[in-house]
Amino acid sequence: MQTLVTGGTIDEEEVAAALAVVAAVLESEAAALAQPGAPAMPGWVVGARLITQGLRPTRVPTLPRWHTIERLRRAERASTGIVGQ
Predict the structure, then answer these.
(1) Under a CB-based contact definition with an 8 Å cutoff, are residues 57 and 47 in contact?
(2) Best label site of 16, 29, 61, 67, fewest CB within 10 Å?
């Protein structure tokens, strides 16, 4: 792994701390993906976030991830085209 730091005066300790934080976040996300049976957050929290974003919460067979939420958002805006008129 090669790290290039430009601009400003940054100590090696600051760079090491930043890289440690990034590594910890990536590790926690990988651990969350490795355990698909454990819910990341309660369903009511996910539903509340969807309602806040103007989406209609639905029950999906998989854990709601951002790609699932984005797909649902796009599907809600989709039209049936000329057939739906």
Answers:
(1) yes
(2) 61
Contact present, 19 and 2 (Cβ < 8 Å): no
Residue that is written with structure tokens 């300790």 in the block: 13
pLDDT over 70 at 22, yes or no: yes
Q: What pLDDT, on a 0 to 100 scale, did the predictor assign at position 11?
A: 85
In single-letter form, the type of residue at position 52 comes to T
At 84, is the pLDDT very low, low, confident or very high (cuts 50, 70, 90)?
Answer: low
